[in-house]
Design goal:
Number of helices of chain B: 3
Strand content of chain B: under 5%
Helix content of chain B: 40-55%
Largest sheet of chain B: 2 strands, antiparallel
Radius of gyration of chain A: 18 Å
Radius of gyration of chain B: 21 Å
Helix content of chain A: 55-70%
Oligomer: heterodimer
Largest interface: A-B, 37 and 37 residues
Protein backbone atom coordinates (compact mmCIF):
# COMPACT_ATOMS: atom_id res chain seq x y z
CA UNK A 1 0.00 0.00 0.00
CA UNK A 2 1.55 3.23 -1.05
CA UNK A 3 1.33 6.73 0.27
CA UNK A 4 -0.13 7.69 -3.08
CA UNK A 5 -3.16 5.49 -2.41
CA UNK A 6 -3.88 7.36 0.81
CA UNK A 7 -3.42 10.68 -0.90
CA UNK A 8 -5.78 9.69 -3.68
CA UNK A 9 -8.49 8.65 -1.24
CA UNK A 10 -8.08 11.81 0.84
CA UNK A 11 -8.20 13.90 -2.30
CA UNK A 12 -11.46 12.21 -3.16
CA UNK A 13 -12.83 12.88 0.32
CA UNK A 14 -11.85 16.54 0.11
CA UNK A 15 -13.43 16.86 -3.30
CA UNK A 16 -16.69 15.27 -2.10
CA UNK A 17 -16.82 17.69 0.84
CA UNK A 18 -16.31 20.66 -1.45
CA UNK A 19 -18.95 19.36 -3.85
CA UNK A 20 -21.42 19.02 -0.97
CA UNK A 21 -21.05 22.77 -0.35
CA UNK A 22 -21.59 23.60 -4.02
CA UNK A 23 -24.68 21.37 -4.21
CA UNK A 24 -26.09 22.85 -1.01
CA UNK A 25 -25.69 26.31 -2.54
CA UNK A 26 -27.45 25.13 -5.72
CA UNK A 27 -30.42 23.81 -3.72
CA UNK A 28 -30.62 26.89 -1.53
CA UNK A 29 -30.53 29.37 -4.40
CA UNK A 30 -32.63 27.37 -6.87
CA UNK A 31 -35.64 29.66 -6.43
CA UNK A 32 -33.68 32.89 -6.67
CA UNK A 33 -34.40 34.62 -10.00
CA UNK A 34 -31.38 34.73 -12.27
CA UNK A 35 -29.45 32.10 -10.37
CA UNK A 36 -27.32 29.79 -12.50
CA UNK A 37 -26.46 26.45 -10.90
CA UNK A 38 -22.89 25.18 -11.06
CA UNK A 39 -21.16 21.92 -10.35
CA UNK A 40 -17.55 20.94 -9.90
CA UNK A 41 -15.51 18.01 -11.11
CA UNK A 42 -11.94 16.97 -10.39
CA UNK A 43 -9.31 18.35 -12.70
CA UNK A 44 -7.46 15.38 -14.19
CA UNK A 45 -4.40 17.45 -15.00
CA UNK A 46 -3.76 19.37 -11.82
CA UNK A 47 -3.18 17.85 -8.41
CA UNK A 48 -6.04 18.90 -6.15
CA UNK A 49 -7.48 20.94 -9.01
CA UNK A 50 -11.16 21.56 -9.57
CA UNK A 51 -13.12 22.38 -12.70
CA UNK A 52 -16.16 24.54 -12.17
CA UNK A 53 -18.80 24.16 -14.84
CA UNK A 54 -22.05 26.03 -15.27
CA UNK A 55 -25.10 23.83 -15.69
CA UNK A 56 -28.02 24.46 -17.96
CA UNK A 57 -30.54 26.56 -16.11
CA UNK A 58 -33.39 24.07 -16.38
CA UNK A 59 -35.68 26.05 -14.13
CA UNK A 60 -36.28 25.82 -10.42
CA UNK A 61 -37.56 22.25 -10.52
CA UNK A 62 -34.69 20.90 -12.55
CA UNK A 63 -32.15 22.57 -10.29
CA UNK A 64 -33.75 21.26 -7.11
CA UNK A 65 -34.07 17.69 -8.35
CA UNK A 66 -30.62 17.65 -9.82
CA UNK A 67 -29.01 18.98 -6.65
CA UNK A 68 -30.88 16.43 -4.51
CA UNK A 69 -29.80 13.54 -6.74
CA UNK A 70 -26.23 14.78 -6.93
CA UNK A 71 -26.15 15.23 -3.13
CA UNK A 72 -27.25 11.62 -2.61
CA UNK A 73 -24.67 10.39 -5.11
CA UNK A 74 -21.94 12.53 -3.57
CA UNK A 75 -22.79 11.25 -0.10
CA UNK A 76 -22.54 7.62 -1.23
CA UNK A 77 -19.24 8.32 -2.95
CA UNK A 78 -17.91 9.90 0.23
CA UNK A 79 -19.04 6.86 2.21
CA UNK A 80 -17.28 4.50 -0.20
CA UNK A 81 -14.07 6.51 0.06
CA UNK A 82 -14.29 6.56 3.85
CA UNK A 83 -14.74 2.77 3.81
CA UNK A 84 -11.72 2.51 1.55
CA UNK A 85 -9.62 4.63 3.89
CA UNK A 86 -10.72 2.56 6.86
CA UNK A 87 -9.73 -0.63 5.03
CA UNK A 88 -6.30 0.81 4.23
CA UNK A 89 -5.78 1.81 7.85
CA UNK A 90 -6.88 -1.67 8.92
CA UNK A 91 -4.17 -3.13 6.69
CA UNK A 92 -1.60 -0.86 8.28
CA UNK A 93 -2.76 -1.94 11.71
CA UNK A 94 -2.52 -5.64 10.77
CA UNK A 95 0.95 -5.15 9.36
CA UNK A 96 2.06 -3.35 12.50
CA UNK A 97 0.65 -6.07 14.72
CA UNK A 98 2.32 -8.80 12.67
CA UNK A 99 5.65 -7.00 12.86
CA UNK A 100 5.39 -6.79 16.63
CA UNK A 101 5.11 -10.60 17.01
CA UNK B 1 -15.30 22.31 5.67
CA UNK B 2 -18.78 20.84 5.52
CA UNK B 3 -19.75 23.44 8.13
CA UNK B 4 -20.36 25.71 5.15
CA UNK B 5 -22.81 23.16 3.71
CA UNK B 6 -24.66 23.13 7.03
CA UNK B 7 -24.82 26.93 7.09
CA UNK B 8 -25.95 27.20 3.47
CA UNK B 9 -28.66 24.55 3.90
CA UNK B 10 -29.83 26.15 7.16
CA UNK B 11 -30.00 29.60 5.55
CA UNK B 12 -31.97 28.08 2.68
CA UNK B 13 -34.42 26.44 5.06
CA UNK B 14 -34.86 29.70 6.94
CA UNK B 15 -35.52 31.53 3.67
CA UNK B 16 -38.09 28.97 2.51
CA UNK B 17 -39.73 29.05 5.92
CA UNK B 18 -40.03 32.82 5.67
CA UNK B 19 -41.50 32.46 2.18
CA UNK B 20 -44.06 29.99 3.55
CA UNK B 21 -44.93 32.41 6.35
CA UNK B 22 -45.57 35.15 3.80
CA UNK B 23 -47.72 32.83 1.68
CA UNK B 24 -49.71 31.72 4.72
CA UNK B 25 -50.28 35.36 5.68
CA UNK B 26 -51.39 36.20 2.16
CA UNK B 27 -53.84 33.30 2.10
CA UNK B 28 -55.15 34.15 5.55
CA UNK B 29 -55.74 37.74 4.54
CA UNK B 30 -57.05 36.98 1.08
CA UNK B 31 -60.68 37.51 1.99
CA UNK B 32 -60.30 40.46 4.31
CA UNK B 33 -61.67 43.79 3.26
CA UNK B 34 -58.86 46.15 2.36
CA UNK B 35 -56.21 43.44 2.60
CA UNK B 36 -55.40 43.68 -1.07
CA UNK B 37 -54.46 47.30 -0.79
CA UNK B 38 -52.64 46.97 2.52
CA UNK B 39 -48.93 46.53 1.94
CA UNK B 40 -48.49 45.13 5.44
CA UNK B 41 -50.79 42.21 4.82
CA UNK B 42 -49.95 41.18 1.27
CA UNK B 43 -46.32 40.45 0.51
CA UNK B 44 -44.35 38.84 -2.26
CA UNK B 45 -42.82 35.50 -1.27
CA UNK B 46 -40.39 35.38 -4.18
CA UNK B 47 -36.69 35.79 -3.56
CA UNK B 48 -34.64 38.71 -4.74
CA UNK B 49 -31.06 38.24 -5.88
CA UNK B 50 -28.64 40.31 -3.82
CA UNK B 51 -25.34 41.29 -5.34
CA UNK B 52 -22.23 40.06 -3.59
CA UNK B 53 -20.92 43.57 -3.04
CA UNK B 54 -24.18 44.64 -1.39
CA UNK B 55 -24.22 41.55 0.83
CA UNK B 56 -20.61 42.20 1.78
CA UNK B 57 -21.32 45.84 2.56
CA UNK B 58 -24.28 44.83 4.72
CA UNK B 59 -22.23 42.24 6.55
CA UNK B 60 -19.39 44.67 7.19
CA UNK B 61 -21.59 47.55 8.28
CA UNK B 62 -23.76 45.54 10.64
CA UNK B 63 -23.22 42.86 13.24
CA UNK B 64 -26.62 41.44 12.39
CA UNK B 65 -26.66 38.21 10.36
CA UNK B 66 -27.55 38.48 6.69
CA UNK B 67 -31.22 37.71 6.21
CA UNK B 68 -33.46 37.54 3.22
CA UNK B 69 -35.34 40.34 1.62
CA UNK B 70 -39.07 39.98 1.22
CA UNK B 71 -40.28 42.69 -1.10
CA UNK B 72 -43.86 43.69 -1.53
CA UNK B 73 -45.36 43.02 -4.90
CA UNK B 74 -46.16 45.80 -7.28
CA UNK B 75 -49.75 46.77 -7.24
CA UNK B 76 -51.63 45.53 -10.24
CA UNK B 77 -54.90 46.94 -11.45
CA UNK B 78 -57.72 44.46 -11.03
CA UNK B 79 -59.97 43.68 -13.94
CA UNK B 80 -63.49 44.68 -13.08
CA UNK B 81 -65.06 41.74 -14.88
CA UNK B 82 -64.15 38.41 -16.41
CA UNK B 83 -65.69 37.13 -19.62
CA UNK B 84 -68.47 34.63 -19.05
CA UNK B 85 -68.61 35.07 -15.30
CA UNK B 86 -71.17 36.66 -13.08
CA UNK B 87 -69.15 39.07 -11.07
CA UNK B 88 -71.71 41.38 -9.58
CA UNK B 89 -71.37 39.98 -6.08
CA UNK B 90 -67.67 39.23 -5.85
CA UNK B 91 -65.85 41.74 -8.00
CA UNK B 92 -64.19 44.49 -6.00
CA UNK B 93 -64.76 48.06 -6.92
CA UNK B 94 -62.82 49.40 -9.84
CA UNK B 95 -60.88 51.66 -7.49
CA UNK B 96 -59.53 48.69 -5.58
CA UNK B 97 -56.25 47.05 -6.50
CA UNK B 98 -55.03 43.54 -6.11
CA UNK B 99 -51.43 42.57 -5.70
CA UNK B 100 -49.91 39.97 -7.95
CA UNK B 101 -49.65 37.57 -5.04
CA UNK B 102 -53.30 37.89 -4.16
CA UNK B 103 -54.14 34.92 -6.37
CA UNK B 104 -54.86 31.89 -4.13
CA UNK B 105 -53.85 29.40 -6.84
CA UNK B 106 -50.59 31.21 -7.40
CA UNK B 107 -50.05 31.25 -3.65
CA UNK B 108 -50.60 27.51 -3.42
CA UNK B 109 -48.18 26.87 -6.27
CA UNK B 110 -45.61 29.06 -4.54
CA UNK B 111 -46.25 27.16 -1.31
CA UNK B 112 -45.57 23.80 -3.00
CA UNK B 113 -42.42 25.19 -4.62
CA UNK B 114 -41.22 26.51 -1.26
CA UNK B 115 -41.93 23.12 0.33
CA UNK B 116 -39.95 21.31 -2.34
CA UNK B 117 -37.06 23.74 -2.02
CA UNK B 118 -37.16 23.22 1.76
CA UNK B 119 -36.97 19.45 1.18
CA UNK B 120 -33.94 19.95 -1.07
CA UNK B 121 -32.24 21.95 1.68
CA UNK B 122 -33.03 19.18 4.16
CA UNK B 123 -31.50 16.64 1.76
CA UNK B 124 -28.35 18.75 1.46
CA UNK B 125 -28.19 19.02 5.24
CA UNK B 126 -28.63 15.25 5.65
CA UNK B 127 -25.90 14.60 3.08
CA UNK B 128 -23.50 16.93 4.90
CA UNK B 129 -24.37 15.30 8.21
CA UNK B 130 -23.85 11.81 6.81
CA UNK B 131 -20.46 12.86 5.49
CA UNK B 132 -19.40 14.23 8.86
CA UNK B 133 -20.53 11.02 10.57
CA UNK B 134 -18.50 9.01 8.07
CA UNK B 135 -15.47 11.24 8.61
CA UNK B 136 -15.67 10.80 12.36
CA UNK B 137 -15.87 7.01 11.91
CA UNK B 138 -12.75 6.71 9.77
CA UNK B 139 -10.58 6.13 12.83
CA UNK B 140 -12.76 3.19 13.94
CA UNK B 141 -10.98 0.48 11.98
Amino acid sequence: MSQTGFEAVEQGLTFAKTRAIVLAADATNARTPGFHPVDISPDGERFNGLVVRALDASGTSGTIERSMAASAQNSIRYRALADQERAMLREFKSAAEEARR
Amino acid sequence: MTDAAFDIAADGMAAERSAMDVIARNLANAGKAGAASNPESNGDSSFVPVSFSNALDDALSSADPIGIEVPFANEMPLATSMPGMETAEITPQASQTLRSDGDPIGQMIALVAAGRAYDADVAALQAAKQMDVEASDIDKF
